[in-house]
Design goal:
Length: 212
Amino acid sequence: MPKVSQEYLDARRAEILSGARRCFVRNGFHATTMQDVLTETGLSMGAVYRYFAGKQDLIVAIAEENLGEVVTEVRKLADRRPTVGIGEALADLFEVIKTKHAENGFAALSLLVWSEALYIPALTERIKATIVEACGEIVNIVRQHQNAGALPPGASADEVAQLMATIVPGFILQLTVLGPSGVDRLSDAARALWPEGSTHATTPHTTGQPGE
């Protein structure tokens, strides 16, 4: 047989994953069979099994793509706008996730992947690694604010970055359940909560009446 190029192999693999994504978003992981994937892609069994030994391999590959996309976008944000505010950083990430969800069901697939991670150790480890990697990228943004005095004294940049990374799955859950219109104002809320150039207020809180 003539040797095929790596570009061809990569394109065929991407084609299979794209078809599997559509099947999984439409029917879920458990209701989707390999025959469904074959029908969706129009490829032969041999063509698909050349790349993936079974459905679990497809799930892991799609999960890796999803997780990798998140880290890539966080890294782009950190490189493009290293001094962006915390609220603006979250808002930008929200908008990226909404766009990817419209393209390929990103948010719905993320929920499916998280549920499968309970039963597939390789997924659990991959998710852990991605969280650590994403937090490492986010912490660069947070430290810019810390250096500018915009974080409370004693606040840990690492912990604030982890908090930001924790907010994102909640956004993904609501995007999946409520739809894009249900999360339309969350980007604005993030910007309002952490406005650009805000500084930490040091005035103590009091409950008395003015002048007391």
